[in-house]
Amino acid sequence: MNKSPKERIEELVKLLNYYNYMYYVENNPVISDYEYDQLYKELVELEEKYPEYRLPDSPTQKVGGAVLEGFRTVEHKIPMLSMDNTYSREELIEFDQRIKRMADVKEVEYVVELKYDGVAVSLHYENGNFILGVTRGDGIKGDDITENLKTIKTLPLKIDYKETLEVRGEVYMRKDDFEKLNKEREKRGEVLFANPRNATAGSLKLLDPKIVAQRNLQIFIYQGFLKDGPETHWEVLEFLKKIGFPVSPYKKLCKNIEEVIEYCDEWQEKRFSLPYNIDGMVVKVNNLNLQKTLGTTTKSPRWAVAYKFPAEQVTTIVKDVIVQVGRTGTLTPVAILEPVFVSGTTVSRATLHNFDEIQRLGLKIGDRVFVEKSGEIIPKVVKVIPEVRTGNEKDVPIPEVCPVCGSKVVKDKEEVAIRCPNIRCPAQVKERIIHFASRDAMNIEGLGEKWVNILVDKGFLTDYGDIYYLKYEDLIRLERMGSKSARNLLDSIEKSKTRPFENLIYALGIRHIGIHASEILAEEFNSIDELKNATFERLSSIHEIGPIMAESIIEFFSNEENLKVIEKLKKAGVKMEKEIKEEKKDILSGLTFVITGTLKNYTRNEIQDYIKKLGGKVTDSVSKKTDYLICGDQPGSKLQKAKSLGIKIITEEEFEELVKSKMK
Ligand code: IVH
């Protein structure tokens, strides 16, 4: 069915506004720039033809983007426009011809710069001092992110120029810093950034400049508004460099559009050798008077254009699709590729994320596909080419059983993931043990992937509890395990028994509980037993612990297998409670407690041990010497006795409060 122009305009406005929102506000683009530009062009053409249907909220009527919450809003004195995109040399030639026609000149000089793939900012200086830095926002007004910008080492806080000055530039993150950041985030169980641009935008939005400082952001300045300054953009850049701004050395003054095209081609080849991402080149009219004459549209200047590189895509064959089983049992399909060179590296694998993605792509084994590696670290399959099928391609089977242990798989209600529910699945067991021993968890040096695989395969480890029962005689018999490594391994296993409580919680490998959540839980709870017995209400009322995490904790501790492993750890002497600092060891000294009834969070032995550890005394019967009666469910006769003697009667929660207040 064909849509009427009016309907299509409405549809395009809705779509493009959504894409803009995802791009600017969520930093989570859902279509490529190229596709966006095609739809945008279609809308412009329709609106020109049918101006009566033009909508007030059409993206053609705005500069684009939106303002974030949480920072002071500042209006731009000069709007921060966007730029028209071109994708071919033909379009660049058209751009050149249009300018020549409008300005009525034979030849135009251009400056060609790299198009940094980061976040645009405007910087204000007064009396040589940096006084204000603002995001682009919606182009009319942006956010005051001065404090965050001050953390950028290459941004000069003082310059050698006393006039009021505004310059603009691009904040970006280097590729190596991006990878480091994502690795750390992975360890902490946090969501990964898709690419360095998103990481930059995310960092500039942080409300704590101290964290921003750790992100090692960079900046290049590409524009300056100088009073009575030079006559050309090239000279402006030279001047900005001279007074202390970081201006990229990679730029060229071109006599004509042919030189421009040549320089663009050169960088299309070389771009991957840079330590940061660029997504194209920017071509600017050099003469500032000519820039003024050409002026701007509501959206972009007529004197500049972006030449966007096609995201590097190559085609190759999917030889197979294998299924990996993670620590929590998630089955992830991975495409095994005919090795192919793309964006500077050879790739032979690409993630397919999940089985819905395979369906969305319509992928079969043996298919020729487009693979892309743009900014992201892990390459992805972007498109199947069904036209070149031979007929020998095979459907990718959706696993009904786990490829490692053969258990029937389950599909979570809300998730797209397929999971192996068998907690004893060797793949899961290995991943869980590797996680348990990792640095942020129990930090058992020498127990990495290689040895875990061997120890599980040989039957020495069936869960992480077994780690503490490994014997020297067993280890020494393994191939390539010398007596020294065996002793070192046992030493670091022993050392791990006193890991801080938060690392222990993290090590258990509870779904959705990363190291940050573990730290929060360790603040709130004193021991594993207390955490184990916590109700959903209590857990989800903790700041930063959401219902999904709370549910996951409950699920973890209601699993018999998990409880058995915890018992194993306890028996082996692994510390499963909060460290009681030396100076806190006597906070209950001089106090005598009696316990009656059933407690929620402790067994009798547990609470007795705990009180003793804090210097208190526990007796069996109530007397005048008793300070507190801790009263649980269905108390015995001790309650009556305490009442008659006028002894303080407290609940379990009140006892915990008492301890907490004394700990401070
Ligand atoms: S000049 C609007 N120069 O590209 C014209 N912009 O699509 C003034 N960008 O948000 C911009 N590298 O952040 C200019 N060398 C460069 C650039 C550059 C990246 C970004 C800029 C802007 C976007 C426009």
How would you describe this structure in keywords?
single chain; 664 residues; Helix Hairpins; D-amino Acid Aminotransferase, Chain A, domain 1; OB fold (Dihydrolipoamide Acetyltransferase, E2P); 5 domains; five-stranded mixed beta sheet; 19% strand; binds 2-(butylsulfanyl)adenosine
In a nutshell, what does this entry contain?
The chain is α+β, with helices and mostly antiparallel strands. Helix content is 37%, strand content 19%.
Describe this structure in words.
The chain folds into five domains: 5-61, Helix hairpin bin (Helix Hairpins, Orthogonal Bundle); 73-308, DNA ligase/mRNA capping enzyme (D-amino Acid Aminotransferase, Chain A, domain 1); 313-396 and 414-418, Beta Barrel (OB fold (Dihydrolipoamide Acetyltransferase, E2P)); 426-572, DNA polymerase, domain 1 (Orthogonal Bundle); 583-663, Rossmann fold (3-Layer(aba) Sandwich), CATH 3.40.50.10190. Strands 12, 13, 14, 16, 17, 19 and 20 form a seven-stranded antiparallel β-sheet that branches. Strands 2-11-10-3-9 form a five-stranded mixed β-sheet. The chain is α+β, with helices and mostly antiparallel strands and 664 residues long. Helix 12 (426-437) crosses helix 13. Strand 16 (368-372) and strand 17 form a beta hairpin. It starts with a helix and ends with a helix. Helix content is 37%, strand content 19%. The radius of gyration is 32 Å and the shape is globular.
SSE diagram, text form:
Elements: H1 5-24, H2 33-49, E1 73-75, E2 85-86, H3 89-103, E3 110-116, E4 119-126, E5 129-135, E6 141-143, H4 146-149, E7 165-172, H5 175-187, H6 196-204, H7 209-214, E8 218-225, H8 233-242, E9 251-254, H9 257-270, E10 278-285, H10 288-294, E11 304-308, E12 313-325, E13 330-342, E14 345-351, H11 355-361, E15 364-365, E16 368-372, E17 380-384, E18 394-395, E19 410-411, E20 418-419, H12 426-437, H13 449-457, H14 472-476, H15 483-496, H16 501-507, H17 515-524, H18 528-533, H19 536-540, H20 547-557, H21 560-571, E21 592-596, H22 604-613, E22 617-618, E23 628-631, H23 638-645, E24 648-650, H24 652-663
Parallel strand pairs: 2-11, 21-22, 21-23, 23-24
Antiparallel strand pairs: 1-6, 3-9, 3-10, 4-5, 4-7, 7-8, 10-11, 12-13, 12-16, 13-14, 13-20, 15-18, 16-17, 19-20
Helix pairs in contact: 1-2, 12-13, 16-17
The structure holds 2-(butylsulfanyl)adenosine (IVH).
